[in-house]
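Researcher: Quick test of sequence recovery. Tokens follow.
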């Protein structure tokens, strides 16, 4: 079918729906909504058989939904209505939530139900939940709704059944399965719960009274937007992220320590780690830049002890660490988790040190990643934007990324597995390709390209990407700049294994599979073959040559103040509203 996706942004869920529909033979196009008239023109231009709104902050005009079946994806269970669905679910401590696909009508979130799916609510931040459990549920529900619509529309032809994916699902069963079901009717009356926008007054943390569990719920419900507005060191800040601390304590509200860019703040019964802050008072019309907490505070930060997290945390500790290493027999597991998947110069250097430590251990298989959210999105654009010299920081950051990738590419004494429990993009996707095998959770999206940020790219991609998929496919992936599902990536050769696991179960399943890999009798032969292949490739063209060529282009871009990269970076970091739909999303027929 011709399906028009209308959205406020091409965010992770819109990308997933887009890529999943393409995988199933549909012809999706995207329109980023900037106003009613532009939307009407897009509908006339595309003449869609179906409209789907995966993430839309504005109401669809009546003349559009009355003329075209329009499905709204609401991140809440049956009967839930309102703009802060996930925020309230987390802040109120819900253990189970869901996604409902509704037909647009005159009542916001009150239309007929085409499908819905349930999902658990683990103790994670809102953005993590949205990209993982909610995204999985939304994918199941949208694909089921599209299948039902297609089955009832003779001109649309058959639609393949969606993959059920992990987790519970509960879809309404109308007497006619090809039509939606009203929320109120004989034998089925959905209880309606309409809840207003969650304002900062309800998010406010009372450091003198709120226990750690309450503080964490409030922080997680506001991650990554809008953050929790708070007073800190005499100024207004938005707090982003929140992790418990079980050893440090002090006067409620005071800062206790720093660790890897985060600050630790005391609660009435413990403390929490705050990885990122955003300035609360900025010039009118300018969005504050979310930064590592210590960088954001700068000279305002009092002298505090730096409490490094041990790379190997003792069993049972509740604290925050963005790096963690452990061993299970012959398998080393090096987990890293950086906010938003962004890797600053500091992040890259710390991960490189941890990787070198992991390689000093007597293991035969080393797993890199394995966490439940973003694997990596490459260089840290926010830190670069906030730097005194963004060009210089861009250069330092990309070289630090290249140093890390080079270390992985030249590790010839063991097998390295990149385990992607969450999405990866740009240099982060290329970081994964440096490993010998790439394993992805089934719900993962890859964006193996750079051009939408105005960059040529580095991370040795001109070596690793064609090596995996061939030169023609490499040019297509980087040129089209479209998201790719894990399943499509496996068919292309970009990914070696897809793992059917819920987000919370991915790490354990990867560890189990890595153990099986380490036990294979032929592993030593494979490691020897890997080493020989690396030597042959080096003789044909040294890795240093790829790096030099890539960085030459990047250096010119960084130093050119008129290069699109600088304006694109600023727009991305400062969350500037979309001004229109990029041409590459207009249609894929």
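Model:
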């Amino acid at each position: 079918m011709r399906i028009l996706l209308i959205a406020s942004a091409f965010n992770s869920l819109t990308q997933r729906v887009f890529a999943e529909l393409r995988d199933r033979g549909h012809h999706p196009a995207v329109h980023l909504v900037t106003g009613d008239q532009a939307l009407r023109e897009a509908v006339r231009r595309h003449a869609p058989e179906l409209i789907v709104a995966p993430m839309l902050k504005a109401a669809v005009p009546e003349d559009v939904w009355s003329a075209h079946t329009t499905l709204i994806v609401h991140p809440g269970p049956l009967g839930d209505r309102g703009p802060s669905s996930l925020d309230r679910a987390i802040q109120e401590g819900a253990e189970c939530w869901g996604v409902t696909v509704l037909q647009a009508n005159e009542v916001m979130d009150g239309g007929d139900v085409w499908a819905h799916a349930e999902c658990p609510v683990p103790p994670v931040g809102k953005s993590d939940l949205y990209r993982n459990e909610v995204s999985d549920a939304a994918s199941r529900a949208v694909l089921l709704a599209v299948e039902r619509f297609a089955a009832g529309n003779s001109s649309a032809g058959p639609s393949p059944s969606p993959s059920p994916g992990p987790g519970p699902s509960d879809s309404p069963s109308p007497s006619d399965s090809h039509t939606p079901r009203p929320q109120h009717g004989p034998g089925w009356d959905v209880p309606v719960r309409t809840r207003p926008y969650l304002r900062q007054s309800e998010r406010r943390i009372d450091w003198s009274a709120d226990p750690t569990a309450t503080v964490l719920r409030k922080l997680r419900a506001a991650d990554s937007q809008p953050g929790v507005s708070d007073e800190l060191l005499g100024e207004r800040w938005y707090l982003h992220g929140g992790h418990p601390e079980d050893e440090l304590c002090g006067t409620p509200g005071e800062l206790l320590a720093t660790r890897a860019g985060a600050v630790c703040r005391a609660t009435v019964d413990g403390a929490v780690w705050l990885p990122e802050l955003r300035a609360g008072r900025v010039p009118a019309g300018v969005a504050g830049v979310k930064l590592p907490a210590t960088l954001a505070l700068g000279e305002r930060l009092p002298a505090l002890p730096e409490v490094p997290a041990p790379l190997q945390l003792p069993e049972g500790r509740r604290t925050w660490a963005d790096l963690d290493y452990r061993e299970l027999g012959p398998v080393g597991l090096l987990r890293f988790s950086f906010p938003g998947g962004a890797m600053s110069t500091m992040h890259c250097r710390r991960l490189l040190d941890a990787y070198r430590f992991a390689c000093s251990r007597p293991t035969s298989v080393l797993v890199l990643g394995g966490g439940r959210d973003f694997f990596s999105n490459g260089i840290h654009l926010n830190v670069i934007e906030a730097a005194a010299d963004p060009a210089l920081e861009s250069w330092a950051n990309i070289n630090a990324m290249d140093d890390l990738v080079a270390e992985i590419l030249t590790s010839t004494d063991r097998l390295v597995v990149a385990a992607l429990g969450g999405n990866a993009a740009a240099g982060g996707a290329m970081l994964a390709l440096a490993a010998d095998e790439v394993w992805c959770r089934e719900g993962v999206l890859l964006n193996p390209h750079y051009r939408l940020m105005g960059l040529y790219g580095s991370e040795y991609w001109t070596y690793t990407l064609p090596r995996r998929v061939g030169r023609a496919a490499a040019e297509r992936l980087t040129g089209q700049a479209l998201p790719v599902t894990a399943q499509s990536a496996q068919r292309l050769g970009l990914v070696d294994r897809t793992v059917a696991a819920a987000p919370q179960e991915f790490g354990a399943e990867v560890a189990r599979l890595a153990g099986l890999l380490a036990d294979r009798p032929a592993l030593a032969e494979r490691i020897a073959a890997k080493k020989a292949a690396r030597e042959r490739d080096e003789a044909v063209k040294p890795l240093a040559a790829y790096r030099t060529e890539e960085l030459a282009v990047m250096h010119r871009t960084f130093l050119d103040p008129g290069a699109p990269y600088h304006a694109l970076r600023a727009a991305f970091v400062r969350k500037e509203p979309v001004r229109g739909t990029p041409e590459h999303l207009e249609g894929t027929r």
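The first strand starts at residue 2 and ends at 7.
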